[in-house]
Amino acid sequence: MIQYNGLLIAFLFFFAFQLAFQLALDLLNISFLRRHRHAVPQAFQGVVDGEKFSKITSYTEDSTRFGIVARLFDKAVLLAILLTGLLPWLVDAIKGWGPGFIGGGLIFFGVLAIFSHVLDIPFDLYRTFVIEQRHGFNTGTIGLWLSDWAKGMLISAILGGIVLVVLLVLVSYFEATWWILAWMIISIFELVILWVYPVLIAPLFNKFEPIADTALAQSIASLMERAGLTVKGVFQMDAGKRSKHTNAYFTGIGKRKRIVLFDTLLASHPEQEILSVLAHEAGHWKRKHVIKQLILLEAFSFVGLFILSVMLNWEFLYRTFGFEEQIRYVGLLLAPVVLSPLSYFLRPLGSALSRKYEKEADDVAVSLMGTPEPVRDTLIRISADNLANLAPHPIYAWFNYSHPPPVERIERLDAMREGDPRNVREQVSGS
Ligand SMILES: [Zn+2]
Question: Is 225 a catalytic residue?
Answer without folding.
Answer: no
